[in-house]
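Sanity check

After download, print the first record. It should look like this:
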Amino acid sequence: MAYLQVSRPILSASSSSTSILRDYQLQGEEDLEVIKKDVDEDDDVHKTLETLSWPQRLEHFTFAWYAMTMSTGGVAFVLSVIRHRFPGLDTLGLSIFISNILLFTIITALMFTRFIMYPHTFTKAFTNPHEGFFFATFWLTFATMITNTTAYGIPNTGPWLITALRIAFYIYLVCATLLAIFYYHILFSVQKLVITNVLPGWVLPIFPAMLVGTLASAIAKTQAAHHVLPMLVAGLSYQGLGMLVAIMMYALYFGRLLTSGLPVDASRPAMFIAVGPPSFTALALIGMAQDATATEIFSLYPILPTITHPELIPDVLQILALVAAISLWALAFWFFAIALLAAIDAFPRNGFHLNWYAYVFPNVGFTIATIKIGERLDSAAILGVGSGLGATLFLVWVLIMVCHVRAVWKRTILWPGRDEDAVH
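Expected structure tokens:
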């Protein structure tokens, strides 16, 4: 049986996952999974690795940590829209929202500390796609904070917040545009990805742009009528952009599943990311159509030429939005079912990793889309399903947070060779 022999100890905080693996001389023909297993089981190696301090471990603090705040913000927003409410639910959602802002601040501070202490990690964080894809979760967290502000902030503040939300919307739009263009440019010019390894996570850089539509549906109804139409046009444009790019990725992803099979166990949580685009598009279409009706923009401002009855536009938009949302929800459900079966199959063999938060955030959109469709159809059964999904999502989020803390304590993440900065 092959074994590992330690050739020299790890002495410095700047040791990367690559240098650590080079410290071991493999005798025998074993793959990387066997190497990692043997390292975990070797007492001498374990004692050597125990010398790493918290500042040294910070070198492996990656963008993937924003998946935690992204999902936490999503859970808070779900709690704000659930129809079956009970005393204390608003307080629970508000406390999660505020806690998430604190978490986001701490993670951002630690990320800056990492880049200052280990400058070589800055460039690699973007050029290594295994970590770089997660840079989008920073902006997705920002998006959830904006939507939660509409739910929890506006009822408890003054009119100044409405103006602040409009400014934040356009700042976010510009940043999401730049991310969608320049990060894919980096992937096209710096990295060559293998098509047989395609995962729904490849759509993450366009995800913030797609959520412009979700933001517009949440914010537009709070704005004065003359601000609503530009916001809704921007939301519809970017929601369409995100969904169309996702469709292109779906073609690659579906082809990969047919020709290469399911992803490896550790990557199966990422299959839930495919649920996100159709789900968020469905809820955004319904929300923007409702906003057009609530603000009466077409009856008050008949600015569209050749339209003789602008007062009919909101009704037409709502019908079209509902029809499209139901179709998109069905697609999201199909992706959800496939991902769920694959995840259940791999769960006994799959330890915690930060991509477990994919169990939460994409299904935030799926849950809210279910609730929105139930509201438009006035269906108590669908609303009950939506509330059940919301309660399940909350429990899953709590379990994942517990597993996250345990993984840090047990050194299964935030450790050389075990995070997204590892060389694959």
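If your output differs, re-run the checksum step. Summary of this record's structure: The CA atoms of residues 371 and 386 lie 5 Å apart.
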